[in-house]
Fold each of these.
Amino acid sequence: MNEEQRRDGEQAVNPSDKKSAKDYSQYFETVYTPPSLKDAKKRGKEEVAYHHDFKIDERFKEMGNGRSFYIRTYGCQMNAHDTEVMAGIFMALGYNAVETPEEADVILLNTCAIRENAENKVFGEIGFLKHLKRDNPNLLLGVCGCMSQEESVVNKILKSYPHVDMIFGTHNIHRLPEILNEAYLSKEMVVEVWSKEGDVIENLPKVRKGNIKAWVNIMYGCDKFCTYCIVPYTRGKERSRRPEEIIQEVRQLAAQGYQEVMLLGQNVNAYGKDFSDMEYRLGDLMDEIRQIGIPRVRFTTSHPRDFDDHLIEVLAKGGNLMDHIHLPVQSGSTDVLKIMARKYTREQFLELVRKIKTAMPDVALTTDIIVGYPNETEEQFEETMSLYREVGFEMAYTYIYSPREGTPAAKMNDNVPMDVKKDRLQRLNALVNELSAESMKRYKGQIVDVLIEGESKKNPDVLAGYTSKNKLVNVKAPKSAIGKIIPVKIIETKSWSMDGEAVETQTMAGVN
Ligand code: 5AD
Ligand code: SF4
């Protein structure tokens, strides 16, 4: 069968059903809805609608029979969790999961738009996958995730990558069955990207990666509009899931034996701000989750601006709430923070850190930093370096500023040459390394609890896991320790990890 016939519907919903595409026209809902950054910027006053009625339409139930899927994920944990949802939908449609794109009948690239190099990687991959389409004309290739929310990306794909079959956005994931159906039937590239703020859809199927740690969305979107960031455009307005839905999901995960949940949102400290019927914020949610019998609870990502006293008070209760907070500061200069529209000063950030450390003296703080912001001076950069040391961050993700089309910062003139930006990144990374190594050294000879996740990537004879402060430990322990939290004696420390041995305790004897 050639490409044309396939697109005409011979391989459509039900492969044995030989209707023409015209006969399927009743099923066509949207074939071409391109994104609009202008619409994505709008924030409506309408209440968020909650949908509990997701189910796979009867007519799509056979769609995946004899077919397989592969999803490649780029970017953050939110994206990785979206992949779990899409995998759940594929499985519900009867598709098989495969390990390589070569084996797949549908390939999805779940993309990240946060920096230009993330986008370049995806374009490289789309180009590379063309040869698979030549070998297998029945293959469907789709692009989803944050990049598909950008007009410039969709236009570039339409113009230069016609072998892509479908593009759909972050608000359209639940429409995957309809989008696939249209892609099987349509001659054109299927583009369905809603730019309007999405609703909250519950009960989507999920296939979780692993059975030790689980991601749980608590909210979607971001209303902060930091001047450099594309996320408020690609992920829409802030929408919180109802607490009862989240608590039920965490309870289920605990019952299934998961050891850790990571609560996810682009700005989790804004959790609950959008509830019009109650005053219920992240601190309240954490206080309830604290009482669920799941050993470890974490959350990401925080915005310092909304980090309130009640949350600090609850986190200080400890228990299953981990003593690690990822708190992106972005810059140590009040002037740069102002241009970034972060809405706090260096002093306010330091005051927040002081409050957190007073309540939780042993807390580990980590952060995100952008260097080389438009017109950042050497003095302003030095302020970032001094703040880093003053706070005593134990780890940081560091980035050179990358202009994103459509954001206010992309229109700013920039007098900082790239070699200066690179030099600043190097100097900052040296400091990050130094403080990370120092934070590890403190553990030498101590016994720490480690959640063992599996074999070490570098050495399969050793297991690897994380401490409550999220520090990587390579552990000599029996394989039966995988999935358990065990006491480990730290023998050696490095810049980014530690080496240790399982402590022979009664529990370990049981484990053996
Ligand atoms: N350029 C560089 N880094 C960025 N980040 C977000 N947008 C940009 C950008 N345009 C960084 C921030 C954020 C992290 C997820 O990515 O530090 O916290
Ligand atoms: Fe990338 Fe941000 Fe989108 Fe995550 S939310 S996929 S980090 S752009």
Amino acid sequence: MKISPSILAADLTDLKTILKNLSKTMVDYLHLDVMDSHFVPQLSFGESYSLQISKITSIPLDIHLMVSNPEKEVPKYFVSKPKIISFHIEASSSPIRLAQTIRSEGILAGIAINPATPIERIEPLLDEIDLILLMSVEPGYCGQTFLPRSLARIRNLKSIISSRDGGKIYLEVDGGIHKENIKTIWEAGADIAVAGSACFTNSDVNSNVQKLKDECVPAPS
Ligand code: DX5
Ligand code: ZN
């Protein structure tokens, strides 16, 4: 299981120190939650903060855009040279074209989907995307409880992804993931887990990430 710590749960006034202490071999991605106070109630940060972060870390950036009108917002993040940009299917008017634009920049295109949105809405996009960001909480805040119904959605999506021909599509799950439930989420088929509170509850982020990974091992036979 790869782990993408969400900096939304970190002390943003001390982010430089936190980032400098992250181990590149332990932390797979850095999850940046961009919130516009329109698509979701809160406002977080935007493209200039994301660019500054890209200059002080070599950990691949995983940008999650919780914004209205992603067609206008997505290109502002190309300069940060992230590994992944995900935008919401609920917010996009032309998701196929937008995913193609992201890919043309050499960035992995992710489609994010809210807990109440039927997963069938993603099927027309499967040839155009590299990743599905399945929300396991309503987007907007860290520290929420994992919605149990998400497990069936992960399994369902995993089976859709595995049974199709074509390139690999990664399944990333976001919200309410911690040491006690990560194994079930991994067994259901997640490739990448986003974790905010579980990674930043104390200053030892590397060890928190290690603990999450340690849970994801097959049971002895
Ligand atoms: C929710 C964000 C998540 C959140 C995860 O809107 O997209 O990435 O920060 O935080 P935890 O792990 O605390 O639920
Ligand atoms: Zn997120």
